[in-house]
Amino acid sequence: MRKYGIKSSLARTLLRLRIAFAFTALLPLIACAKPPIKIGIALPLTGVTAYRGVAARNAIELQAEAINASGGIRGRKLELIIRDDADQRDKTMTADRELMDLGVAAIVGNMSSDAAFPALALASEHRVPIVSPSISAQSFSGKDDYFFRTCGLAAPTGAVLGEWAAGQGLKKVAVALDVSNESYSRPLLEAFKSVFEGEGRMIETIVPFLKAPSGDNTALVDALGSSNPDGVFCITSEVQCAAICQALAKRGKKPQIIAPMGVMTPDLFQFGGKTVEGLVVSSYFDPESREPRYLEFKSRYEAAYGREPDLASCQGYDAMTGLVQAMLRARGLDGPGIREALRGLGSFEALQDLRRMDAFGDAIQSQTLLVAEEGKFVKLGKN
To answer: N or C: which end of the chain has fewer CB within 10 A?
Structure first.
């Protein structure tokens, strides 16, 4: 009996050792089993602005992959849940609400000011921060809410372009004004006007429009060219801007075309061809940046997608970076905790600059004047 008791005790000891060893071996797996942090992505993946949405999504996915490969946020991986908001109000509300119902900690996305405006109340109601890559309307500023943006405002762009146009000696400018997104387009126009007009310079014609019916730009171009302006400010989409350039060229007119940075997509050159050569924009994105962070990202982006990054892809990446930096500092990884961290972020290392953020989560950026040359944008005056 004594002999049996020793064996039984030894067996129990060995069993305990095996259990302890197995538990120790499983600890890394247990740590890796922490639930992921759900991040909603709401972007226009279909429709006329789909190019920008897809480019932003690609960059966001690239950023998330790198973060997860380095261990995630406090040992938790990021899980991206992607929805198409089509850059339309009803679809934006549907996409954002669905993501919030799925329990996302934050949303990166919503690229159009008009489409996203109703989502502000939804974000505050559900206490889920929205970090937009590109919304730049003044009407979103200075609000104590759950909306944040990592891009600069639109109005300063208008002022920079107005100053440049005046310096170039332009006297009469016609404006093609897309009123489908007035919270963006009107302040841009007013800022341009306040700087440009005076000393014999004036905005001769403003042609508001929603969309050229059936692609027919005849009436729009007739109105723009009626005063024979020496400049045309196209506050429009890239496709509409290209159509205006083509129509003016067919009539033998070549005024100086000026446009906001939103036209900077391959569609401008695809639809406008040579007629968009010489078009000038003021942009928060510098395609010739030598910032090491941007060059490293550019290399990864080209390897992954076979093309250079552009304004939209950099905006998407920077929005994700701002959110991640806030999450790393947040006391809690829920909506209120992330919001508090975003409010106190102050600045973060964006791809091309140290992005400053004010107390209400609005970004402050410097701008670069660019000109369309041979199918791409280069710095104005470089040559």
So the answer is: N
